Description:
Elements: H1 3-11, E1 28-32, E2 35-36, E3 44-51, E4 54-65, H2 68-71, E5 83-90, E6 105-107, H3 114-125, H4 142-170, H5 175-187, H6 189-201, H7 205-211, H8 215-225, H9 236-251, H10 273-284, H11 290-296, H12 300-306, H13 334-356, H14 361-368, H15 377-385, H16 393-407, H17 416-422
Organism: Salegentibacter chungangensis
Protein name: DUF2851 family protein
Amino acid sequence: xxxxxxxxxxxxxxxxxxxxxxxxxxxxxxxxxxxxxxxxxxxxxxxxxxxxxxxxxxxxxxxxxxxxxxxxxxxxxxxxxxxxxxxxxxxxxxxxxxxxxxxxxxxxxxxxxxxxxxxxxxxxxxxxxxxxxxxxxxxxxxxxxxxxxxxxxxxxxxxxxxxxxxxxxxxxxxxxxxxxxxxxxxxxxxxxxxxxxxxxxxxxxxxxxxxxxxxxxxxxxxxxxxxxxxxxxxxxxxxxxxxxxxxxxxxxxxxxxxxxxxxxxxxxxxxxxxxxxxxxxxxxxxxxxxxxxxxxxxxxxxxxxxxxxxxxxxxxxxxxxxxxxxxxxxxxxxxxxxxxxxxxxxxxxxxxxxxxxxxxxxxxxxxxxxxxxxxxxxxxxxxxxxxxxxxxxxxxxxxxxxxxxxxxxxxxxxxxxxxxxxxxxx
Length: 426
């Protein structure tokens, strides 16, 4: 038994409340169960109940055992003076407030439908290896799954908007500067995301604007601030960039003491940090009006076109300095651009819309649904449980949120699908 389960029962009145009475035999009439409190203090605020002939307004505290009241020290805590009902699974001791007045108690054990208790025990004590409802995940209705995944995706955007809001404060409300930082992190992917972000943080965005008319200057700025021009190399282009960077560093008083140096270990050549930074430089070289188009275009092809950029000629024949190869296109792949949309552009559009007071949920849901789903081990397992579910990025992002925030933390009682299972409607 979990106390969260009792919260669920109380909040949704999943018990025989018609027969509810206190341990003293007074009938209880439920008017309002109160507001669920997830912070410190009583579990439900501002409940309204009629106990016997008296109408009460106050708080409700819930425990597995009545004696937990004393175990948690509530008898000396003034925050619990306004508790009007103590809801328990087992009544093992009489409870008193700080002023020695008794607290009415309700025992739920005999009021809960055995089938609900059975489903709860099956959900939390079953021999499952991945998620609690894995043997039943394919049985939920398409309608329930679709609605909950949309909610999960919006929740994921809400979480990401908190980081964006912090970036906005740091950049003095410069949304284009926030876009640059998010793009830099996204270009670094998992291995070098933090390194690229630290590089972007080390550059005043106004400095980048002053350099953007020359592609080589932007390359020198990014590579130099990342520490990739610190070594010695006989390559002519390397030394040209190093010379440009030395000039820029002096001119703009650049510092990179706290920049994380990118890694090459186990990366394919297409993801080498110097190439990714050169591509990012290509995006910012002479490109104006990018922010407005990315924030307002509703056509995904137009958004993808923004990232159809070329690298300078040197990188068409190099993955690293001093190691030439035959000419190859080094444009951003569609899959990489879609990752930028998923991890950067759409979250930024959500945060930007909130900032302006625009509600863009439906627009962004339509946009993300046009992008193919990501492929990873989590999606592979969900596909086994419910084939076809990971078909688009809306679902895959939502499933990542569901798995990490609910399934992995056993928060089934806060999950809409968990509720459906408990009700026996999976």
